Amino acid sequence: MTRKLVSSIISFLFVTVIIFRESLYDRFWIFAGLPILVLTIGILFIIFLNLKKDRSAFYISIIALLLGFSIMIVEETEIFKSRIVLKALLVDDISGLELTLRENYKFELLPETYLGRKESINGIK
After folding, report:
1. 2 touches 46 (CB < 8 A)
2. Phi, psi of 5 (to 5 degrees)
3. 50: Cβ–Cβ under 8 A, 6 or more apart, which residues?
4. DSSP 83
5. CB under 8 Å to 117, separation ≥6 — which residues?
């Protein structure tokens, strides 16, 4: 029972951190990667501990791991976005702007400085 509860809590935290990783990155950049790393190690640890003892905790951990990574992959791909009509890049010595216009009249503007990317600006024409 305790293994199942711990596995469920860590799995829930893992998926929640992945869903909100953009807002965590906006607060402070280390908050985006560090919790994902710690919770991934925690899930792998639970998987190896529960390999033969508690099958339900093992399955919960595997499902959370696969769900979390699939959410990350789907968010980063262009599969569910419309076709790119125009892509422009404006580069300066210490900064840059990347503008992407899509077929469904949406745009993405990604400002970038020497310290890294800033918050992306998304909208509709």
Report:
1. no
2. -65, -45
3. 3, 7, 57, 58, 61
4. P
5. 110, 111
Residue found by looking up tokens 């503007």 in the block: 109
User: Contacts by 17-24 with C-beta closer than 8 Å and gap 24+?
Assistant: 18/68, 18/71, 18/72, 19/71, 21/72
Q: Could you give the maximum distance between any two Cα atoms of the chain, in Å?
A: 58
Nearest Cα residue to 99 out of 115, 116, 112, 86: 86
Range 35-61 burial, b when 16+ CB lie within 10 A, else e = bbeebbebbeebbebbeeebeebbebb
Residue 115 tokens read as 């310290």
For all residues of the chain together, what is the average pLDDT? 79
Task: Answer yes or no: are the C-beta atoms of 36 and 21 closer than 8 Å.
Answer: yes
pLDDT tens, residue by residue, 103-125? 888 888 888 877 766 667 777 76
Percent of the chain scored above 90 by pLDDT? 2
Residues 82-86: what's their mean pLDDT? 87
Q: How confident is the model at residue 79 (pLDDT cuts 50, 70, 90)?
A: confident
